[in-house]
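pls design
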């Protein structure tokens, strides 16, 4: 049996994963360094290790949640008939979902402890029991506790596959856990919560569907022309709506985030964009979105017709580029979501 081809495929996948991880972590570190917020009074005794490790834990939390939602979207796009026809693919998706759920629970619990330690008088020596007080007394702590519960429920639902509508149940749990923390982050800052809260909710849901869905389609069926011809056209419709939602909600969130004003004067907004660290992060997100829209359009207009004809296409290569840009953009957004 010739093992050369599978080994080459594994090596390429490992190289792609390494590149995505390295570039996204580098972007995260860069965003942390250029913003360097002054600690709030309650955080005056917090060690730099806690302050700068927290965004990394949040990034892993966000990434795990997005993959978890992507798994459920992929299973829903397959449909009941598709899950039966491509049972091996469905099982692989489920395994990824379970792994993502476990990572999600772990990363969120770590974030919970780090944030509790950041405002605790005992700092890094804070006992885990202090997490309960943080969850009860601080809104962001309550959101993290809700996220942990949703992630645990998601993982258990993935493991048990009950009831018969388990992909839809997992989908709902994933979205609940995904948006709980962002709506208490920069969406809760300022006086325009009536705008920022629904906007960040839609923004995060759209990002998870777009990024998570593309990741699962690429990993699981990029080389399976039959399954790809079933899933990609359905995903393309979802992705089109998602990118439009991300763009619109991103514009709605930029003004309140940078200026604390729903309708800032143009000169004030431009100054905030080009002269402040938060503005640089927004511009980075905008550049990423522009590139993603271009690659998404190429997939939809050029590759999709060939996929429908079950022809071989270079989806994996183009999707890897798109996923890399997505990961870098999410890393920047993770830092942008914290108080600056």
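designed seq:
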């Amino acid at each position: 049996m010739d093992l050369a081809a599978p080994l080459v495929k594994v090596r390429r996948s490992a190289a792609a994963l390494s590149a995505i991880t390295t570039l996204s972590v580098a972007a995260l570190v860069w965003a942390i360094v250029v913003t360097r917020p002054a600690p709030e009074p309650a955080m005056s005794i917090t060690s730099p290790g806690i302050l700068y490790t927290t965004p990394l834990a949040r990034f892993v939390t966000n990434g795990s949640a997005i993959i978890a939602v992507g798994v459920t979207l992929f299973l829903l796009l397959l449909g009941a008939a598709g899950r039966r026809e491509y049972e091996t693919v469905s099982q692989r998706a489920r395994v990824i979902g379970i792994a993502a759920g476990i990572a999600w629970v772990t990363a969120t619990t770590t974030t919970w402890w780090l944030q509790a330690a950041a405002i605790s008088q005992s700092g890094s020596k804070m006992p885990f029991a202090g997490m309960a007080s943080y969850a009860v007394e601080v809104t962001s702590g309550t959101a993290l506790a809700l996220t942990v519960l949703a992630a645990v429920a998601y993982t258990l639902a993935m493991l048990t596959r009950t009831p018969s509508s388990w992909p839809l149940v997992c989908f709902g749990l994933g979205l609940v856990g995904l948006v709980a923390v962002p709506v208490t982050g920069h969406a809760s800052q300022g006086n325009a919560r009536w705008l920022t809260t629904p906007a960040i909710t839609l923004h995060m849901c759209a990002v998870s569907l777009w990024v998570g869905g593309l990741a699962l389609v690429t990993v699981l069926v990029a080389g399976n022309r039959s399954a790809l011809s079933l899933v990609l056209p359905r995903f393309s419709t979802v992705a089109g709506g998602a990118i439009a939602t991300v763009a619109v909600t991103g514009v709605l969130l930029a003004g309140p985030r940078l200026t604390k004003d729903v309708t800032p004067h143009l000169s004030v907004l431009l100054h905030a964009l080009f002269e402040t660290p938060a503005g640089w992060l927004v511009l980075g997100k905008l550049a990423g979105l522009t590139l993603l829209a271009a690659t998404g359009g190429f997939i939809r207009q050029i590759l999709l017709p060939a996929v429908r004809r079950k022809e071989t296409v270079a989806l994996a290569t183009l999707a890897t580029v798109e996923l890399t840009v997505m990961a870098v953009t999410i890393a920047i957004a993770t830092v942008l979501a914290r108080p600056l």
